[in-house]
């Protein structure tokens, strides 16, 4: 029977992550202190020193290098973020009238999509009046991503360029995929990101909002890679706020299990 293992990345300790379903494992990033019950990216083969630039990508590197030995190529591996959790369905609009709680609507390990598809991506952002490339250039600066594409092999370059000239982005570097596809993805993206990082650093681009430029580049590549090289579907996600993350509140009860907490979800971007 196939396994499902999801890692929930966090830069701080939030008690609510201790109460996630058992197949979702919290992983601590960066320099914060975490309880012994958590795993951290500092142990084993890691690039945790690059977390301020790479964001959640340092966790994906750690998983690639340290966590795959007990998984088969057809098992599923994925990630989520401490504020962004997978839901069990795809929704076109917010569930404002739902009487259920958020916890009961989180992804379940028997989700039927895991039997039908090779990869699950986050519900996409669809731009109405610009391409993915134009959006990146507006936010991060002209020519940066075009230069970094040159560090890929020619066959991938052309496919990536074609993808960037479309209007659909699967954001957040967040996905669930079969281990075989995760390995292929990591084999390509991390050597590429290393070249991107050195280029950006040598050209003094890693500052202010663009400090995490490698993570933003990876976001566009991740969106492209899985939609190009695997059979994909999408699920929605919930962005949880400070009330849910409060350690004080979580000492009393799990706020995700309160009635009506699902009514503000899923998170849908409108452009």
Structure commentary:
The strands form 3 sheets. The protein has a 7-stranded mixed β-sheet. The chain has a two-stranded antiparallel sheet with strand order 5-11. α6 (154-164) crosses α8. It has helices at residues 51-54, 57-66, 113-116, 132-140, 144-149, 154-164, 179-202, 213-229, 242-245, 247-252; strands spanning 4-10, 24-28, 39-40, 76-81, 84-86, 119-122, 125-126, 168-169, 175-178, 232-235, 237-239. The model has no long low-confidence stretch (mean pLDDT 96). It has one domain (4-257): Spore Coat Polysaccharide Biosynthesis Protein SpsA, Chain A (Alpha-Beta Complex), CATH 3.90.550. The protein is α/β, with parallel strands linked by helices and 271 residues long. The relative contact order is 0.20.
Summary keywords:
271 residues, alpha/beta, Spore Coat Polysaccharide Biosynthesis Protein SpsA, Chain A, seven-stranded mixed beta sheet, two-stranded antiparallel ribbon, 11 strands, 35% helix, 15% strand
Instruction: Profile the largest sheet.
Output: 7 strands, mixed
Strand order of the largest sheet: 3-2-1-4-9-6-10
- The number of domains is 1
Mean pLDDT across the residues is 96
Task: Please mark out the parts with pLDDT under 50 across 5 or more consecutive residues, or reply none.
Answer: none
Provide the CATH architecture: Alpha-Beta Complex
By DSSP (H or I, 4+ residues per run), the number of helices equals 10
What CATH first level would be assigned? Answer: Alpha Beta
Beta-strand content bin = 15-25%
Structural class by sheet pairing and helices: alpha/beta
Straight-line distance between termini? 41 Å
Cα shape: globular
Let me know the number of strands: 11
Order of helices and strands: EEEHHEEHEEHHHEEHHEEHH
* CATH-assigned fold name: Spore Coat Polysaccharide Biosynthesis Protein SpsA, Chain A
* Amount of helix: 25-40%
Q: What is the CA-based Rg, rounded?
A: 18 Å
């Amino acid at each position: 029977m196939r396994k499902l293992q999801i890692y929930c990345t966090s830069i701080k300790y939030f008690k609510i992550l201790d109460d996630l379903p058992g197949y979702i494992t919290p992983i601590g990033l960066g320099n914060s202190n975490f309880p012994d019950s958590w795993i951290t990216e500092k142990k084993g083969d890691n690039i945790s020193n690059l977390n301020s630039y790479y964001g959640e990508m340092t966790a994906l590197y750690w998983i690639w290098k340290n966590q795959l030995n007990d998984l088969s190529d057809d098992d599923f591996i994925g990630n989520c973020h401490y504020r962004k959790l997978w839901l069990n369905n795809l929704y076109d609009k917010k569930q404002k009238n739902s009487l259920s709680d958020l916890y009961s609507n989180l992804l379940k390990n028997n989700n039927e999509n895991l039997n039908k598809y090779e990869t699950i991506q986050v519900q996409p952002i669809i731009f109405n009046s610009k391409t993915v490339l134009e959006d990146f250039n507006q936010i991060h600066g002209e020519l940066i991503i075009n230069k970094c594409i040159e560090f890929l092999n020619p066959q991938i370059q052309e496919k990536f360029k074609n993808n960037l000239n479309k209007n659909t982005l699967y954001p957040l570097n967040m996905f669930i995929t079969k281990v075989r596809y995760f390995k292929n993805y990591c084999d390509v993206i991390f050597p590429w990101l290393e070249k991107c990082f050195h280029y950006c650093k040598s050209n003094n681009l890693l500052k202010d909002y663009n400090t995490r430029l490698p993570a933003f580049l990876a976001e566009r590549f991740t969106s492209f890679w899985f939609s190009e090289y695997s059979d994909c579907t999408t699920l929605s996600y919930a962005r949880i706020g400070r009330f849910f993350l409060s350690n004080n509140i979580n000492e009393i009860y799990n706020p995700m299990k309160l009635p009506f907490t699902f009514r503000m979800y899923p998170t849908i971007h409108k452009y």
